[in-house]
What we know:
It is built from 10 helices and 12 strands. It has helices at about 5-15, 25, 85-90, 120-135, 155-165, 190-205, 220-235, 260-275, 315-325, 350-360; strands spanning about 35-40, 45-55, 60-65, 95-100, 145-155, 170-175, 205-210, 235-240, 330-335, 340-345, 365-370, 375. The longest helix has 19 residues, at about 120-135.
Amino acid sequence: MNKNTLTLLVVLLVGAPLHLRAQPAELNESINEVVIQVPKAGLFTIELETTLYKPDGPGPFPIAVINHGKASGDPRFQSRYRPALAARYFMQRGYAVVVPMRQGFSKSGGSYIGGGCNVESNGRVQASDVKALLDHVTAQPWADKQRIVVLGQSHGGWTTLAFGPQNYPGVRALINFAGGLRQETCTGWEGGLARAAADYGKETSLPSLWFYGDNDSYFNTDTFQAMFARYNAAGGKAKLVAFGKFGSDAHSMFGSRAGAPIWQPEVTRLLAAVGLPSEPQAEFSKYRISGLTPIPPKTSFAPLEDETRLPHVKESGRNGYKIYLAKLVPRAFAIGPSGAWAWADGGEDPLRRALDNCKRFAKADCKLYSVDDDVVWTEGM
């Protein structure tokens, strides 16, 4: 066994994380994806690992910034955020999409600054990275610095709201998908979110669109309704889309393929209202979504978080599954008949990548065990 073969075998045994750093050609994904380093000046200049999805051509293109959430564990071990499905939505409309990893996350420099129980401060620190990103991007010849939209999911949604008070030139709207920061060790953390939202709303002149669901595992209905009410009462201009229940966890709506019918029509209306491109354009039709692996229906085989119920796999597979559950949606976990397993997250078709990774190790076809927040396994393998 040569060194390269041994390396691949070790990677597969510990959960097939090779895909996390793979480049688009290796993933067989057709969307244009480039990783760049964006400088953030300070006492020491650091670099922010940033994914750029840019249409073909010289531009200038309107800009969509998508801010990532915060997975459990050390932020440095969080994988690069690749919201390819959302990127395609904007690219079809002629946007360049920019996805920064904030300070201390993934391969970005510096350290994550949490702010303790001060969620308002936390958001403003995160928002400083968005400003650094836009300072760099708007200086590029392919960027239209007068037409910008900023959005984000979970901690990225909170970052987006915290960015609002900067009223950055050229930014026309903010979009918040289940934004916030759940801090159960802090007394009255829900009230802290509402008070911070009020402070952001008081300083923000931009319109914003908020998406929250009733079965969100991070923020219950009372929490997000209080945040929204306080934000608008302080002078904010927000519209709330309370879409009820979604799957097993409404927090994953934005990253899930099934969430597109909920958010895309609302976002389209917002973009049109603020004078940004809102409809697909013929010259960018190549960025339409097609040919994705079908998602099997949810089953009642086992609770999502019960790794002891995984069929065929040994202890390494159960440990790998626990790592997988800490990853952000979209994600998929596959199992082979001999106990081989693999997972994939991010990108536009993690289902296909999980199946392909598993098959390479199993030397046989594999089946999907879990997709996003659902178990989809059926007996018969």
